[in-house]
Task: inverse folding
């Protein structure tokens, strides 16, 4: 008896998984940005938001696990497709011309890994802060210790340093580029198309990618420009411990 | 050789029905015991292979292309006729039958034509059920148009790609049977010999074009659906690979060749631009509905910019010569007149090719654009204008199109009886490869109809009747001397082509020369003197070909396109000679065969008293001396009349 | 009339397992009105006379409809002119680009093994059709053609998909050598018509499974195929196939078998 066809063992299935997991990750980036924009409302609001996130552990961990799965699924299927696509053309063209595709689409296999490294860096910076700051840590920023109860300061102080800003900017730009193709591609892979609304898919991809890029860039810019400064207020949030 | 048409008698509308009712059948459980070979995978071959497979026979299907979907049926643009009378404009099976017999200039078999008209109804149903996207009206029903001067709208069409869509329908049915295991497909295989055992066709010898392997395939019945032989002209609208080898090999094994001189010329093709050109492109005849055909009145204007030639110096020769029909005269009349003005009167236009008169006339849309507006004209012909511009670089809206006639279809082919069986038992021939339904001239939109009628509805049935009649064939092994001899003869022929004594020229060189001779003397118009000259020229050229053709052995696998070409050209030489012999013998004008000696007011003059027959030629071993057999034609329903378009 | 000499770098390969390499030829006095393949015919005729192996390339109808011809010209599948097969590409168009040096390569894909030089085996496309690219209708059992009216816009759209000539340019142009456009065109053509509904969801599952089994890459939505397609078939059909496929996999109550790997 032959094995039955399953969704995931087909190329379209894998692309659907990429699209669905991408959609989850996209949802996260949108939520993440809108939450972080509270930085412009002030340190208290920002830190209060951070605290609130931790008040419902089931939600927090649920989200974390979902995100972890989405990331793994996204990377796993990307890797499998990459391998397959590489094998599908064993001999390369001497002359290779692209007529239709764009830079973003061609560099998904670069922007993807860049994003991965960036996310790890970003987590190291702001979630597992001890890894970047303080004595013996990667950047050993002087006169600053990781403040567990003050995510606002962790963010602002980080962005006062080029070695933190540069990877962050690169990561955010990679995110924008990745999403520029990814969002449009998501519609296509899931077969969400309709002649009347098809043009909106590209518009939405451009709009969202731009919004997320600019929104995320606003933090280091605001810090470097001196608009956001470290706060002297002290916070004590046991939830963040 | 005796030509028995096996036509049923009785009222014509009942003949096919009666014939089916009294024929033998093969029971479903016995069908898989029979091996059927189908050569060719176009409309006739693809449809026949699919249908026979579906019935449960064991089918092998061969084509020289890399996929059955590429057969040249795919290139037909215009449409397919069917007497559906969906337009309620008075069409009927009888009227389609009548038009086809008349259009064939009374040189076809009435019973066959009636059956064709009858089956046209089923074809459309079948094609639509397969998903062929015929043009539709806004109400969702099928659209029709009038085609080639027909007085009713009975042509079904699919943009300009009717042949493609119908072939893809047949191809999908064929692929379904391949998947089901009833048909085994052999693409990139060419049939090079027919195996005849005890008077019956029992198999073929093929060459695998990829690795050069020559194989024997044994069967109980062989079907040839290999298309026409228009490439004997070198330049034609046929595909580059279209060839006569399969039918010619069968002819040499005893299948009579009928009416080889009936070839059809299409008036609206894009002219040649230079000597290097090997293929002509046809453009839909519908262009003549709005375009005006002209040449300059003065030979000195022929290389002038057409825009600078004043109205009074333009010779609208069709409008002047045929005031009633004007630019819409039938294909053959339009074609011949283009030839007269170019080759006899020296008024042709277009690029000068050394050693030839200018062959081209203008097809001008200026007055139609002035009258109807550019938008409407573009809506009607936009895709054709685009195609023309792609090939010539000229925009027909600004510069008049250049057109010239080209060989397009061959009505002649292997002789078959009412069952489409040739003079060799067990050898069936379908589609353009047989001679049966179009007489001396084929009507527009009838080729697709015939191919599919033969393939879907006639052959599957008559093959069953044949097998049911013979019951059992003698066992035949591949090791049998008959098969081995056939195999060796093919090997020897390949060896001979590859080892000519004084190899100096590529096969194309000889093909081009042969084509020139045939076009010049046995093309649009013919006369006894010219035909004799053609025969005198072909014979030594054939010898020269075999002495000087250069085919190189290939490195690695023996994929060798020059060898394929050489084999085809060798057969074209013999067929070309037979064409000229037949054209010389048929001392009358009819349909596509126009003898300048036989005209009334410049129009074709038939000689029904002496030539109301099918000329079927038997191979005698000497290509220059074939034996003629005649099948007399009788017309019980459509009484022969004279065509006139004045 | 303009003529030009051109340098051609042509991929030569003796067979599927042989190593290929470029060889350089000069095409002399190429006339602007020649088609690209006529230029090769002319070169081949000269090569034969010189006793050199002619260049093998596939071609047949030379009218842009049979889908036989397949050459990657300077990186463009079927050459640089949009919606044009290489047999319909004329040299004036090449001259206008100012090219004097041209690279000719075969369709490169694992699923299209090279037979010789520029000739490849595209049997994989036939096998995709075999797996389900048809409507199962017995000859003779069709009902009257006008019994089911089909709205013209649907019929027209099905036609847009049906125009596929099966040349494989989509595979050649795709960075992943994916046959998605080819498969989607047939899936969509039949899936949109009322006649094709019965088998619609099994058809898409079987065809996609076969497409994968042949070793084609996956679609990553670059859109190169659409531009290379001589019939301009839209990648919207790929989305349509994806939707039908995912829907079929998620909602179907029965399984279809996964095909064996390609031959």
Result:
């Amino acid at each position: 008896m032959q094995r039955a066809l399953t969704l995931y063992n087909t190329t379209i299935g894998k692309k659907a998984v990429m699209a669905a997991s991408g959609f989850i990750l996209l949802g996260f980036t949108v939520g993440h940005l809108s939450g972080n924009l509270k930085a412009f409302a002030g340190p208290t609001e920002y830190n209060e938001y951070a605290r609130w996130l931790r008040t419902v552990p089931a939600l927090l961990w649920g989200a974390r696990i979902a995100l972890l799965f989405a990331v793994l699924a996204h990377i796993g299927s990307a890797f499998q497709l990459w391998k397959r696509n590489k094998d599908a053309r064993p001999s390369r063209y001497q002359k290779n011309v692209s007529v239709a595709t764009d830079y973003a689409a061609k560099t998904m296999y670069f922007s993807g890994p860049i994003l991965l490294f960036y996310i790890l860096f970003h987590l190291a910076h702001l979630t597992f802060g001890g890894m970047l700051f303080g004595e013996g840590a990667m950047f050993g920023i002087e006169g600053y210790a990781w403040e567990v109860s003050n995510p606002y300061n962790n963010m602002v102080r980080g962005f006062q340093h080029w070695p933190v800003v540069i990877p962050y900017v690169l990561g955010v730009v990679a995110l924008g580029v990745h999403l520029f193709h990814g969002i449009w591609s998501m519609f296509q892979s899931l077969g969400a198309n309709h002649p009347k609304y098809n043009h909106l898919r590209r518009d939405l991809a451009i709009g969202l990618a731009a919004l997320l890029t600019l929104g995320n860039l606003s933090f280091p810019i605001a810090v470097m420009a001196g608009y956001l400064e470290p706060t002297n207020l002290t916070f004590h949030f046991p939830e963040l411990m | 050789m005796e030509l028995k048409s096996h036509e049923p008698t009785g009222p014509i509308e009942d003949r096919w029905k009666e014939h089916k009712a009294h024929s033998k059948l093969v029971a479903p459980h016995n069908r898989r015991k029979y091996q059927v070979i189908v050569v060719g995978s176009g409309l006739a071959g693809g449809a026949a292979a699919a249908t026979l497979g579906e019935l449960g026979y064991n089918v092998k299907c061969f084509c020289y292309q890399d996929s059955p979907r590429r057969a040249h049926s795919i290139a037909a643009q215009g449409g397919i006729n069917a007497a559906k009378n969906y337009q309620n404009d008075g069409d009927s099976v009888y009227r389609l039958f009548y038009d086809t017999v008349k259009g064939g200039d009374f040189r076809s078999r009435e019973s066959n034509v009636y059956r064709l008209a009858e089956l046209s109804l089923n074809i459309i149903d079948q094609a639509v059920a397969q998903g062929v996207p015929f043009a539709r009206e806004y109400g969702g029903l099928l659209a029709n148009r009038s085609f080639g001067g027909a007085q009713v709208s009975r042509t079904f069409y699919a943009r300009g790609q009717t042949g493609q869509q119908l072939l893809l329908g047949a191809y999908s049915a064929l692929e379904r049977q391949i998947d089901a295991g009833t048909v085994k497909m052999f693409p990139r295989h060419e049939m090079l010999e027919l195996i005849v055992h005890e008077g019956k066709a029992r198999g073929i010898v093929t060459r695998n074009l990829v690795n050069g392997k020559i194989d024997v395939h044994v069967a109980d019945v062989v079907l040839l659906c290999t298309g026409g032989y228009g490439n004997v002209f070198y330049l034609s609208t046929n595909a580059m690979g279209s060839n006569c080898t399969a039918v010619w090999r069968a002819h040499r094994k005893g299948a009579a060749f009928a009416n080889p001189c009936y070839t059809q010329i299409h008036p609206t093709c894009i002219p040649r631009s230079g000597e290097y050109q090997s293929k002509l492109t046809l453009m839909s005849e519908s262009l003549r509905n709005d375009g005006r055909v002209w040449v300059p009145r003065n030979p000195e204007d022929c290389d002038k910019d057409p825009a600078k030639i004043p109205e009074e110096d333009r010779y609208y020769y069709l409008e002047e010569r045929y005031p009633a029909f004007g630019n819409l005269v039938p294909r053959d009349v339009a074609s011949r007149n283009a030839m007269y003005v170019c080759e006899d009167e020296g008024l042709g236009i277009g690029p000068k090719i050394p050693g030839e008169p200018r062959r081209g006339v203008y097809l001008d849309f200026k007055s139609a654009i002035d009258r109807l507006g550019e938008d409407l004209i573009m809506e009607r012909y936009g895709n054709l204008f685009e195609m023309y511009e792609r090939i010539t670089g000229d925009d027909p809206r600004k510069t008049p199109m250049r057109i010239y006639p080209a060989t397009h279809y061959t009505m002649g082919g292997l002789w078959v009886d009412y069952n489409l069986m040739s003079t060799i038992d067990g050898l069936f021939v379908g589609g353009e490869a047989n001679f049966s339904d179009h007489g001396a001239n084929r009507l527009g939109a009838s080729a697709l109809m015939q191919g599919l009628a033969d393939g879907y509805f006639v052959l599957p049935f008559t093959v069953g009747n044949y097998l049911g009649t013979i019951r059992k064939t003698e066992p035949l092994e591949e090791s049998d001397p008959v098969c081995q001899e056939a195999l060796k003869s093919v090997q020897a022929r390949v060896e001979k082509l590859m080892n000519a004594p004084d190899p100096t020229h590529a096969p194309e060189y000889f093909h081009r020369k042969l084509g020139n001779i045939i076009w010049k003397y046995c093309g649009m118009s013919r006369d006894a003197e010219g035909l004799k000259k053609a025969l005198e020229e072909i014979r030594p050229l054939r010898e020269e070909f075999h002495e000087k053709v250069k085919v190189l052995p290939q490195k690695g696998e023996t994929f060798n396109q020059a060898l394929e070409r050489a084999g085809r050209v060798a057969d074209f030489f013999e067929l070309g000679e037979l064409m000229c012999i037949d054209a010389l013998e048929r001392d009358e004008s009819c349909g596509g065969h126009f003898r300048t000696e036989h005209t009334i007011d410049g129009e074709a003059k038939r000689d029904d008293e002496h030539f109301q027959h099918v000329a079927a030629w038997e191979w005698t071993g000497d290509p220059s001396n074939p034996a003629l057999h005649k099948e007399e034609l009788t017309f019980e329903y459509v009484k022969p009349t004279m065509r006139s378009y004045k | 009339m303009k003529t030009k000499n051109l340098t051609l770098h042509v991929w030569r390969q003796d067979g599927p397992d042989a190593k290929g390499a470029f060889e350089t030829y000069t095409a002399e006095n190429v006339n602007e009105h020649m088609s690209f393949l006529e230029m090769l015919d002319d070169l081949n005729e000269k090569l034969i006379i010189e006793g050199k192996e002619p260049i093998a390339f596939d071609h047949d109808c030379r009218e842009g409809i049979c889908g036989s011809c397949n050459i990657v010209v300077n990186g463009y599948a079927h050459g640089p002119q949009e919606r044009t097969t290489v047999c319909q590409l004329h040299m004036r168009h090449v001259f206008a680009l100012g090219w004097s040096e041209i690279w000719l390569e075969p369709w490169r894909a694992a699923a299209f093994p090279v037979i010789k030089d520029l000739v490849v085996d595209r049997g994989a496309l036939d096998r995709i059709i075999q797996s389900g690219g048809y409507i199962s209708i017995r000859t003779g059992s069709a009902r009257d053609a006008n019994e089911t009216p089909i709205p013209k816009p649907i019929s027209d759209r099905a036609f847009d998909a049906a125009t596929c000539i099966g040349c494989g340019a989509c595979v050649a142009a795709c960075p992943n050598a994916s046959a998605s456009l080819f498969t989607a065109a047939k899936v969509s053509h039949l899936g949109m018509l009322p006649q094709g509904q019965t088998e619609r969801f099994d058809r898409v599952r079987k065809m996609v499974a076969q497409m994968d089994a042949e070793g084609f890459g996956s679609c990553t939505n670059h859109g190169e195929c659409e531009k290379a397609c001589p019939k301009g078939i839209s990648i919207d059909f790929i989305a349509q196939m994806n939707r039908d496929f995912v829907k079929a996999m998620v909602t179907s109550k029965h399984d279809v078998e996964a095909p064996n790997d390609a031959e």
Remarks:
- Chain B has a mean pLDDT of 95.
